[in-house]
Amino acid sequence: MSDIQTLDSKVVYENKWLRLREDRIRRSSGNEGIYGVVEKPDFAIILPIEGDTVYMVEQYRYTIKQRQLELPQGAWEANPDADPIELAKGELEEETGLIADSMEYVGFQYLAYGFCNQGYHIYIAKGLTQGAQKLDVEEEDLRVVPLALSELKQKILSGEIKDASTCNAVGLATLKGLI
């Protein structure tokens, strides 16, 4: 039995990127309440590295009104059940134009499971060949920024890079001794 029972569920908002659900719940104590859940498809985040150079992307993030550096990442809303490695390869090429000879799986994490069901698969891409970017309309301002791995780590430590999934991907890959 679940610790929390769903008594009722209704979608209160939906667009092509996400769905917001409001659930009426009962806790194991018998207390009832509501729970807001953001449903989004899982995404892939890719750490493209060649030698000591990591290929980041920088783009304007409307929610915080700032340009930010992060690792290439994304989901395929039209195909939420896509094979994660194919998603990773596709997002890498779309955002950076890079094609990888090898993709090494690092792990799976959840983005913010306190309110959202979205998770992400982390990959390291190596053996990179430059091709053409295939940016979505929403990514029209995206640019590729090569950084030394040591500089990337320093930007995370200093707080300049604030994207949680980027920080986590670099941290997990480092802890596993993969970079």
From TrEMBL:
Gene3D superfamilies: Nucleoside Triphosphate Pyrophosphohydrolase (3.90.79.10). It catalyses: GDP-alpha-D-mannose + H2O = alpha-D-mannose 1-phosphate + GMP + 2 H(+). Pfam families: NUDIX. PROSITE patterns: NUDIX (PS51462). GO terms for cellular component: cytosol. Belongs to the Nudix hydrolase family. NudK subfamily. PANTHER family: NUDIX HYDROLASE DOMAIN-CONTAINING PROTEIN, UDP/ADP-SUGAR PYROPHOSPHATASE. This is GDP-mannose pyrophosphatase. The lineage of its organism: Bacteria, Pseudomonadati, Pseudomonadota, Gammaproteobacteria, Alteromonadales.
